[in-house]
From TrEMBL:
Its main location: nucleus. It comes from Nezara viridula. This is U3 small nucleolar RNA-associated protein 25 homolog. The lineage of its organism: Eukaryota, Metazoa, Ecdysozoa, Arthropoda, Hexapoda. Residues 24-66 are annotated as: Disordered. The chain crosses the membrane at residues 251-273. Residues 189-450 form the UTP25 NTP hydrolase-like domain. Keywords: Membrane, Nucleus, Transmembrane, Transmembrane helix.
Length: 654
């Protein structure tokens, strides 16, 4: 167990300045309704602007609810799941049937569907008191889309023209094949994990899920308003009029930085309002979510993926509620008057708080129907515990009523089954064990879920241009937990002694886990080894000193953390021997760090007589990272081979 003194503090990692632990108190404001005007108050902590009103004329027409019976929106939310499906999904380890499907653009789809035997009682209907009760069930998997037709996707007519206008301005002029396939899946309410988002397709992906999110909210509002009109002259509320959850927010979008939230909300505006309509608090939004961009150096420029991710406002503490109407989008709305919440994990984590805090709040998560994570790989570098904390507070019974009309609440929401109806859309640059584990264990959509999983070839190792042997050392372990200790023992017994005995200098040890970093640092101190360290908490002054000592050979080892490299992406000089204590989480980091190796003396003169080396430790639990680096086929051979060591020499080495 790691001592309390090594537990992480809150830091702004871009400038590595410590963030104060105190958080601002948040006042809750009520939502008032008068003369059919919906008065939306400011979001948490907003005291600078006057309350603004959304007039009845801004709302959708009540006669515009034109959803068809085969609309996946209705099919997904209208009916209860059967007791058998509930039993499968609520089990400790839910079982899913697996099917591999190949599509032209997305590639290999792993389709997971709840493993339920459809016999007698488990069929789509059941006789109850002489009436036929229809249960919700996983629907037929869609065919590959053959044309870019928004109508086939059941997109509401109110936003189709805005979407078409936006697409005309795009490079393709219409939906791309990738967007066609992605929309075909998400508009049918499958949960999707797409870990192949990159610089070339990120905007396509973002537009696709934005269309779906706005479409979902428009349909939700239309259905409620349509039912409101029908119920005006009735005292009772028939079962078919149950159209709501326990609270209003239906879509939650998690984004790592304000710059990404800014792009998402601009996409919402173009889809919902086009070139017209009213945007409340637009000026404040632009001021707070744009600007404050990092200045990228011209000398020794950062990699392109870094420049794209960190351009714009990189503040990672934010949250915003959005209220959607036909002619108006209200930004900074109170969460309980919001349809959509866009936030960072840290922003929500501070609001949710911990047990015992008096002003904590998480009721707004009780009825989320669509969860979207944009650039999810960044969450693992910020603080993955924040994401897990949010998931633990999803779909819990609200602590307060929030003016909920229980007669209009869906039965499955009252039963506490909302988590089985939630659609999860996870977009990441590469597959990571933390994200995959969360998707597999916590995101159990009754309609099924899809993982896009394409084989990797040839892997990032092909980008290594340094002529040095790359030795991959297999560490045998029985469990994930034991792998931590087994890797440490292998390192201190098999790898480190080679460098200690020969008194080698310029040895960089790359460490993905901060806790492994602490363990190695303590061991090096105990063994009185000469080393310097650079981690996410190292001050700028110490970073400069460590880099100088390492380059000039005044120390033997440099302990270097992945989290620091992710947020800073500095170019290290003077490396002659490289040890990957564990495979990097990001495949591009492997080739990037390897290419830092330099056969130079400390005075800068070339010394081609020097021998450089690269050593990598891996276990069978690192299969995802291994495949991303050496390719899927080679990774499979390595993990099934009896040889403990595999050597690679890059063919295009210089």
């Amino acid at each position: 167990m790691i001592s309390n003194k090594f537990k992480r503090k809150k830091y702004n990692l871009l400038n590595l300045a410590e963030v104060p632990e105190k958080r601002k108190k948040i006042r809750k404001k009520s939502v008032k309704t008068e003369n059919q005007k919906q008065q939306v108050v400011k979001n948490l902590g907003d005291n600078n602007e006057k309350d603004e009103e959304i007039s009845p004329g801004d709302e959708f027409e009540t006669n515009a609810d034109e959803s068809k019976e085969d609309d996946p929106f209705l099919l997904h939310l209208k009916y209860e799941i059967s007791p058998q499906i509930h039993a499968v999904l609520s089990g400790k380890s839910p079982k899913f049937t697996k099917e591999i499907i190949n599509w032209p653009s997305l590639g290999r789809l792993l389709y997971l569907k709840p493993d339920v035997n459809l016999d007698g009682e488990q069929s789509s209907s059941k006789i109850v008191l002489n009436e036929k009760q229809v249960f919700a069930s996983a629907r037929k998997f869609p065919d590959v889309p053959k044309s870019s037709d928004l109508n086939n996707l059941h997109i509401k007519s109110q936003i189709v023209s805005n979407i078409e206008e936006k697409l005309k301005k795009s490079e393709n002029g219409s939906l791309t094949p990738l967007q066609d396939e992605l929309l075909s899946l998400i508009c049918n309410y499958y949960s999707v994990y797409y870990p192949e988002v990159n610089q070339s397709n990120i905007e396509q992906v973002r537009l696709a899920y934005s269309i779906h999110a706005i479409n979902h909210i428009v349909k939700t509002r239309l259905k409620i308003l349509h039912h409101n009109a029908k119920l005006q002259n009735r005292l009772d509320v028939p079962e078919e009029f149950r159209d709501q959850g326990l609270v209003r927010p239906k879509v939650l979008i998690l984004a790592p930085f304000k710059s990404i939230a800014y792009s998402i909300i601009l996409s919402f505006i173009s889809i919902l309002l086009g070139n017209g309509g009213n945007i409340m608090n637009k000026k404040r939004f632009i001021e707070e979510y744009s600007g404050d961009t990092l200045i990228m150096p011209e000398k020794n420029p950062k990699p392109l993926d870094y420049q794209q991710l960190f351009s714009g406002n990189t503040d990672d503490n934010f949250k915003m509620g959005l209220t959607v109407t036909k002619k108006c989008l209200k930004l900074y709305a109170d969460f309980y008057a919001s349809d959509i919440i866009v936030a960072s994990p840290l922003g929500l984590r501070m609001l949710i708080g911990t047990e015992g805090e008096g002003n904590r709040d998480y009721d707004f998560l009780a009825s989320i129907e669509i969860l979207i994570m944009d650039q999810a790989q960044v969450f693992t570098m910020q603080n993955w515990e924040h994401v897990l904390h949010i998931m633990e507070h999803m779909h819990l019974q609200p602590q307060r009523s929030h003016d909920t009309d229980l007669s209009r609440a869906r039965t499955w929401a009252l039963n506490g089954w909302a988590r089985y109806y939630m659609q999860s859309l996870i977009f990441s640059a590469n597959p990571l064990p933390e994200i995959t584990g969360l998707f597999n264990s916590k995101m159990n959509n009754y309609n099924g879920k899809i993982i896009i999983s394409n084989p990797v070839s040839p892997g990032s190792i092909s980008q290594v241009i340094v002529h040095a042997p790359q030795m991959f050392h297999y560490v045998s372990s029985s469990t994930v937990t034991e792998a931590i200790d087994d890797r440490f023992q292998s390192f201190i017994s098999d790898i480190l002694p080679r460098f200690k005995e020969s008194n080698q200098k310029h040895v960089l040890i790359y460490i993905p886990s901060y806790f492994d970093f602490v363990r190695l640092r303590n061991y090096f101190k105990k063994q009185e080894l000469y080393f310097v360290q650079i981690c996410e908490y190292t001050t700028e002054k110490k970073i400069v000193r460590a880099r100088s000592k390492f380059f000039h050979g005044e120390t033997q080892y440099l302990l270097y953390t992945e989290r620091f490299h992710f947020f800073r992406r500095i170019q290290l000089r003077g490396i002659q021997h490289l040890i990957f204590y564990q495979l990097p989480s990001f495949p591009s980091f492997y080739s990037e760090i390897c290419n830092f190796l330099q056969d130079v003396k400390k005075d800068g003169a070339a010394d081609h007589g020097l021998k450089m080396s690269i050593d990598v430790l891996y276990t069978k639990y690192d299969v995802t990272q291994l495949a991303s680096i050496v390719g899927t086929e080679r990774a499979t051979r390595m993990l099934t081979s009896e040889k403990p060591v595999h050597m690679f020499m890059t063919e295009n080495a210089k």
